[in-house]
Structure formats: structure tokens, C-alpha cells
Design a protein that fits this description.
This protein has 16 helices and 22 strands. By secondary structure, the protein is α/β, with parallel strands linked by helices. Helix 4 links the parallel strand 4 and strand 5. It is globular and about 65 Å long.
Length: 448
């Protein structure tokens, strides 16, 4: 597939990294020549300096032969105009990143429906929605849906007093009863392990499990976990993400306290939020946080524009009694390090936006995908064609690439949490966990 990406910022670069390793022909357009050259040296892409909304630049990029066009610059107008131009050149699939809420209104003359853009992503709105999703399962630090929401991948941290510590995965499997789940990965001391039945769960392990959505509660009970939706939430940072998040939580009946250091922004928030308590002070002021009841908070969300502030605010709130923290961070390569500091969930806007776009791309037989662990691993949902060499064979006889595990098999309306004896049928959809370095080998294995 030929893919043109406009914008060499964080999202654009990350998409180039993901898509170029999957043998797509990727062309990257950006005004910054030095940035383009640097990414060209690192990745197998073609870089073009120029304006992504310029016809001559688009023609130089080979727009007439493009299968997919993605515009993710920091300027909404450039993204929208470049998509309009790409549509005129006959590109059938268009993606644009748009921050201005006015463009997202269905009544706007520049809405995605009127412009014919297939996917419009508002990174702030998407981030707020992701935080709400994760907050509803309080024990989980990561959550990804597959198979139209029927299958869920969840990440949990195992505390030292949890009775499952010391059990092998085989012993845990014997305890499951009617509610089956599968541990597809263990993160221990910063290293990701694709586990076997003999692997032992240790204190502070971060485990990833695949489970039917309807069985989450029963599975948590077996794992001695107990999630609940938050009742009292503190938000540090009243920018676009903080505001969108406060609106979402208000609608769910949550008590919201939003902390913003800028007095004018506080006035804006107070005028537009119905029930949230808007507080004008620095989110790193411990005494102010304690006076407002941070020790009673079910959740602290730090979404200011600075990584350092977000990390410190999260640690401070946890120190003073907040039950859980979600931290926005711009550098996804730091995400695997933050768990050891005591931060429960770290989210990168870049990864959240990239996940949405990668789901849309649907390369080969992939129905959807998501990045995990700061991009170090992926969960992929594949459609199995009838001519796949391993049809009618049990999983234990299929030599998948090392670093790959099948977490679920979706067969029609039925979801199977597989064992080694599960036989693959034509038309099955496989939800698979893979280390990043094995994603290309897995692609070639599924589509030989």
C-alpha cells in the first residue's frame, strides 16, 4: 500500500515508524527539511520538503497513486485542505487530525461528513475518552477492546499481598472454572515475557490478560482484584484535555475537582462546566491538595502540558492518599519506566492517536491493532483465510514466531479463550499479542 503522511511531528513520525516496518511504501511531507532528513536516515521512507496542501508537492509525492492519505500536522487548516486536495486526486481513504471543536460539529461546513474524510481524529477528545475508559476499571492500567468489544485485553499490576503470587500460570488456569482468561504477557523489571505454563507470577508483575468482556468481573474476583468506577476525581490541568475529561465525567455523575493555575482559564472552565469544582492553584501545592481532600480521591489525572509537572503531580497525589493516578506524557519511550515510580497509568497522546489510525489502516488481514508498552508490543486482530496452511490444526501444532501468542479466537458470534487443543477454522479471527520486533514476522506468517 502506498501511504502519504503530511506532518513529521510526534504522531507522523510514529506512524512512519509503524507503517514502514510493515513494508508499506511511505512518503512523508513536512516543511522542516532537517526533520525530514533525520527521519529518512532512521526509517525506510521517502521524505519530501514542502507544504502538504500544495498541488506541486503532492504530485512530487505521487499522490495519484496513493492508497491512503494521512494529514497530522499541528495546523487543522493544513490537514483539512490537504485532504481535500488528496480527494481531488482520487485518493479513496483520508485521515485528518483536527483540534478545533468547531470543525468536528456535524453542522460545520468543514465537517468530516461534508468533506468526505473517512477518519477525523481530535487528539484531546480521544485522550479524554481513553482516560474515561481506563478509569471505569480501576484496577487496570491498560485496556484495549477487540472483536467489536466482545474481547478485552487488560493490564493489571499484581501487588505483593495478592494470593496469586507464587502460582504458576498452569495452576492459575486450573482455578479458572467457567470463566476463562489467558495471560498473554508478563512485564517484570522492565522486560516483557511471553509466558509459558511453568512461569510463576511474582509480586509487582504487570500481567496482560485476554478475557471476554462479560467475564471481567468474575476474572477480577479470581485474581483477587476489585475494580469500581471512580466517584471523586481530581484533574490537574484545565486545558483542552482536562476540560473534555471534566465534561465526560460530569455526565457520568462523578464529583470532579479541576485544578488550573491560570485564572482566566479557570473563568472559562467555571462558565462551561455545570458541577465541577474549579480550583485556581498550582497542582504541585501539597497543602492545597490536602485541604481539598486529595486523600479521598479515587483517581488523580494529570494532563498539563508538561511531562515533569504531570509525573510529579501524580506522585504527590498518590503519596497523600489518592487511590489511582493517570498521567499524560508526551514521550512514550518513558512509559515502561513510570510503573516502577508508582504511577499507575501513563498515556501518550501520540500512541492514542496512532492506535486509532492504525486500526483504520487495516493492513493485510489485520482487522484492528493497538500499541502497548510505549510501542514495544502490539495486539493485533487477524482474519484467517481459508487457504492459510494451518487451517484445521490445533494451536499446539502451529509454530508461531517466538514472541507471539494467541489470546483469543473469535468464531462468528462465539469468543474462545484458547488452549493448545483449540483448532483453527476458516474465517476465524485471531487476537494476538506480539513483541514489536516480531510484528513483521507475524504478518508474514499469517499472510505467507
Amino acid at each position: 500500500m502506498k501511504i502519504i503522511i503530511v506532518g513529521a511531528g510526534e504522531v507522523g513520525r510514529h506512524l512512519c515508524q509503524q507503517l514502514s516496518t510493515e513494508n508499506h511504501e511511505v512518503v512523508l511531507i513536512d516543511r522542516d527539511a532537517d526533520h525530514i532528513r533525520r527521519i529518512e536516515r532512521e526509517l525506510n521512507i521517502l521524505g519530501i520538503e514542502g507544504n502538504g496542501a500544495s498541488p506541486s508537492v503532492l504530485e512530487e509525492a505521487g499522490i495519484s497513486k496513493a492508497d491512503l492519505f494521512i494529514a497530522v500536522t499541528d495546523m487543522d487548516e493544513v490537514n483539512l485542505i490537504s485532504c481535500i486536495m488528496a480527494k481531488e486526486y482520487g485518493v479513496e481513504r483520508l485521515v485528518a487530525r483536527v483540534r478545533n471543536q468547531e470543525y468536528l460539529s456535524i453542522n460545520s461546513p468543514l465537517s468530516e461528513h461534508r468533506l468526505g474524510i473517512d477518519l477525523v481524529i481530535n487528539p484531546d477528545q480521544v485522550m479524554a475518552q481513553e482516560i474515561v475508559r481506563i478509569s471505569e476499571i480501576s484496577e487496570a492500567f491498560e485496556m484495549v477492546d477487540f472483536a467489536h468489544g466482545e474481547v478485552v485485553l487488560l493490564g493489571y499490576q499484581i501487588k505483593p499481598d495478592n494470593p496469586v503470587c507464587g502460582l504458576t500460570l498452569a495452576q492459575l488456569r486450573d482455578l479458572q472454572g467457567l470463566y476463562h482468561f489467558l495471560v498473554v504477557a508478563i512485564v517484570r523489571d522492565g522486560k516483557t515475557i511471553i509466558p509459558k505454563g511453568s512461569d510463576v507470577i511474582q509480586p509487582e508483575d504487570r500481567i496482560y490478560i485476554v478475557v471476554r468482556k462479560k467475564n471481567i468481573s468474575a476474572t477480577e474476583k479470581l485474581l483477587n482484584l476489585a475494580s469500581s468506577a471512580p466517584k471523586k476525581v481530581f484533574i490537574i490541568g484545565g486545558g483542552r484535555v482536562g476540560f473534555s475529561l471534566a465534561e465526560e465525567l460530569e455526565d457520568k455523575g462523578v464529583d470532579v475537582y479541576i485544578i488550573e493555575i491560570d485564572p482566566k482559564r479557570c473563568e472559562f472552565l467555571a462558565e462551561r462546566l455545570d458541577k465541577a469544582v474549579v480550583l485556581n492553584f498550582d497542582g504541585l501545592e501539597a497543602n492545597e491538595l490536602k485541604a481539598e481532600g486529595i486523600d479521598q480521591a479515587d483517581l488523580l489525572v494529570a494532563v498539563t502540558g508538561g511531562d515533569t509537572t504531570n509525573i510529579l503531580a501524580s506522585l504527590l497525589a498518590k503519596h497523600h492518599g489518592a487511590k489511582k493516578s493517570i498521567t499524560r506524557i508526551s514521550r512514550p519511550d518513558f512509559i515502561p519506566l513510570l510503573g516502577s515510580l508508582g504511577i499507575d497509568v501513563a498515556l501518550s497522546a501520540r500512541l492514542v492517536a496512532a492506535n486509532m489510525i492504525l486500526r483504520f489502516v487495516r493492513r493485510g488481514g489485520v482487522l484492528s491493532g493497538a500499541l502497548l508498552l510505549g510501542g514495544e508490543a502490539e495486539v493485533l486482530e487477524y482474519y484467517v483465510s481459508s487457504n492459510w496452511p494451518y487451517i484445521e490444526k490445533p494451536l499446539k501444532e502451529i509454530n508461531f514466531p517466538e514472541g507471539v501468542i494467541v489470546g483469543a479466537v473469535v468464531r462468528g458470534e462465539e469468543v474462545l479463550i484458547p488452549s493448545g487443543d483449540t483448532v483453527i477454522k476458516p474465517g476465524d479471527r485471531l487476537v494476538m499479542f506480539a513483541l514489536k520486533e516480531q510484528s513483521q514476522a507475524l504478518e508474514e506468517f499469517i499472510n505467507p
